[in-house]
Design goal:
Distance between the termini of chain A: 47 Å
CATH superfamily of one domain in chain B: P-loop containing nucleotide triphosphate hydrolases
Distance between the termini of chain B: 30 Å
Strand content of chain A: under 5%
Structural class of chain A: mainly alpha
Shape of chain A: globular
Strand content of chain B: 15-25%
Number of helices of chain B: 12
Helix content of chain B: 25-40%
Helix content of chain A: 55-70%
Shape of chain B: globular
CATH architecture of one domain in chain B: 3-Layer(aba) Sandwich
Number of helices of chain A: 9
Radius of gyration of chain A: 21 Å
Strand order of the largest sheet of chain A: 1-2
CATH class of one domain in chain B: Alpha Beta
Oligomer: heterodimer
Largest interface: A-B, 37 and 41 residues
Number of domains of chain A: 2
Radius of gyration of chain B: 19 Å
Amino acid sequence: MRAAAGYVWGDSPLHRTPASAKLAALLALSLAVALAEGPALAAALLVLLALVALSRVGWRRALAPVWGMRWFLLLVVAMNALLLSREGALLELGPLALTPRGLAQGLTVATRVALVAALGALLTATTRPQELVEGVRRLLSPLARLGVPVEPAALAVGVTVQFVPTLLRESRQLIWAQRLRCGDVASRGIMRRAVSYVRLLVPIFVSAFRRADELSAAMEARGYRLSDTPTGPRTREGRRA
Amino acid sequence: MGEKIVEARGVSHAYVTGRPTLRDVSLDVAGGELVAVVGENGSGKTTLARHLNALIALQAGSLTVAGLDASDPACVWELRRACGMVFQNPENQFVSSVVAEDVAFGPRNFGASEEDAAGAAGRALEAVGLAGFERRDVHGLSGGQQQRVALAGVLACGPRLVVLDEATSMIDPRGRDELARAVEDARREHGTTVVWITHDMEIAGRADRVVVMSGGEVVAVGAPGDVLADEALLGRAGLEPPLATRTWRALERAGAVSGPAPVTVEGLVSALCD
């Protein structure tokens, strides 16, 4: 059964692991992946596969974010492969040169991005949003002594995670709207596809900002405040009295 | 009706563009009243609603809500506790995807302990007919249920006034009826005062009083039977009478009925049966 923000109900060892431990592990693994190359990257891939098996959330669910990013990942590979250098080129097309080094670099970067995305998805699939907020709070709590606003940071993480399904649904609706007006995102040709996705960014961002504005008003209306004094009323849109 | 919960005198407001959105608005709302505010888009309804919760600062005029001066920054905190607000889009109001967590957000902000906040959330969910929904995912609920969760989040703070800002415009008729019932229950059980900003003339027809806004001004205030049956007035404000009134007028033109037009379906049925 699927629930909030991509959480998949379950009782696997990964589900039972405290959120703060999973968050710390995600940070450590992401850092390791960012630095890994060659065999180390292959080992990280094996770790991910083992974690997916351990989580019992299903391969399809766990790897869905990577599939969703496939065109972006392809673009990363293509740009690296064609633009990195001209040394030892296998093929030259004007200013573009396909090189083995560029291809290897592209595949490395794309694998890193895919691994981090899959690890993040695994975290949200095995951690309830509220546990995630609690995990961030616990992980950051030592920083509170240094004046770091731990509570707002934890709340921001929770709100962001719970808005993900809403924004994804809205993005799908925008893609359908574009398709209906002959601006098919799924049309053939990488360039046309890329342009279509760029066109989608503006309405997605506008919508996200509008939602954020409404949410902030709703939070203020329910007494939310960042400091000891409540946020004052706005003189106009956005400005405080 | 009891003491005045809202007392607005000459409230005016303009956004950055300079175009005035409220012009010299004066309005009283008595304790326990249900006041519907109607008007076309851009008539100033939402701006007025946001003044009541101190989300927008007073630029001109005076406004007291539950005896608290909206122009005094020191009163903002208490004013937001006294006046809760339910917004248009239920999904944009939730801070947690777990129902009980979201409903307890307000009480926690107003200083309740975890235990007290959870208790207030449980009672508020029961009041809106959602007992047993505590651990549910808000995204898995219907629009009507989501708005009732939002209402519960407001009621959990124990407000004296609840403002609903076009809270039914994004939900289906069944959800609208569920929300209307929950609001009515809150009024009956706690004497909560309600200001309902709406385009829905059926809801306005059930209010104690109706306020008509146009171009940032209050152009009429009165009983639903007087205001909503006045086609000329509503036409000038860019509005249409409720379905019951339009049906009555059509029957009147056909010579089938005569007399004052009803503004609710129940009133229409009653008038036709008489």
